[in-house]
Specification:
The structure is a single chain. 36% of the residues lie in helices and 35% in strands. It has a four-stranded antiparallel β-sheet. It is an alpha+beta fold and 105 residues long. Helix 1 (26-41) packs antiparallel against helix 3 (78-91). It has one domain (12-102): Alpha-Beta Plaits (2-Layer Sandwich). It has helices at residues 26-41, 68-75, 78-91, and strands at residues 12-21, 46-53, 58-65, 92-102. It is built from three helices and four strands; from the N terminus they run E-H-E-E-H-H-E.
Amino acid sequence: MTEPCTCPGPPYYSVIFANQRTTKDQAGYEAMADRMFQLAQQQPGYLGADTARDAEGFGITVSYWRDLEAIENWRINSEHLEAQQLGREKWYETFSLRVAKVERG
């Protein structure tokens, strides 16, 4: 069992990524998801993440960041841009992305 992320005291930001997976290229998706998790952990301002996926492929990942600049730097990371493109092309039927400021923890 994975423990929920423990973040420092607010304020900080969360990026909420909700998605419905396709059945395409499961191995490629898992490899890229692992790589993105490793890469995110190396980014300045990254605080942690919580993630869950159900049996039908619906998932939510909430990543936590120190500030909006850290989120923007992650968004434009070259490897992350490649993962985003592959996600749009083959791994996600639908997805939504929201950024929220956490003011209480």
